[in-house]
Amino acid sequence: MPLEWQETRDAAPDGAVSCIAPVLRLHLWPHRSLSANGFVTFVGATAALLAVPLLPLIGTVLVWMLLPFLLGALALVWVALRVSAAQGRLTETLSLAPRRVELVRREVHGDERLWSADPAWVSVHLHRTGGPVENYLTLRGGAREVEIGAFLSAEERLALHSELESALIRIKRTCGAERSAATLSAL
Question: Beta strands of 75-160 (E only): which ranges?
Fold first, then answer.
């Protein structure tokens, strides 16, 4: 599954765990089918295979008649693979901290969309049907609901649902006492 969990904990002066910094961070990205070397290999192999029909025609005028079409096909393969690679630049980063849950979605063209909410009000929802994709996964907090991991497969979203629920419960439990104490002192 194209995701990575990171855990960061800052030690407080007395050795206790501080609940101010993000405790859990989840990075999600779409599947990437080709590496840079794979791209070169695939385009090279495609060019070689497209050249095979030209071999018996070398020295005839038919080579020049077929060559533009074969080069056009190779160019379309090149462009399609480049567009696919650009789609791979899409990422989502979910930060789970005791005082704030934040989801940052970095689009293909560099735009960022941000959603944040108080973890006490955040819930994870799995829409098995009725969503734009099977096992549509959303986070709800406050007045807004946002999707997460829509580019993952249905099975991966199902697995991510249970991981997110466990992580939210863990964050709420880990720093719930500190949060309650801070709320009471503010009153």
Answer: 91-96, 101-106, 112-117, 123-127, 136-141, 144-147
Task: Give the strands of the sheet with 101-106, arranged side by side.
Answer: 3-7, 24-28, 91-96, 101-106, 112-117
Concatenating the DSSP letter of every residue in 38-76 gives HHHHHHHHHHHHHHGGGGGGTTSTHHHHHHHHHHHHHHH
Collapse the DSSP code of 179 into the 3-class scheme (helix H, G, I; strand E, B; otherwise coil) and give the result.
helix
Confidence (pLDDT) at 127: 93
- Global pTM reads 0.71
CATH of the structural domain 3-29+92-186, one choice from 2.60.40, 2.30.29, 2.40.128, 2.40.10: 2.30.29
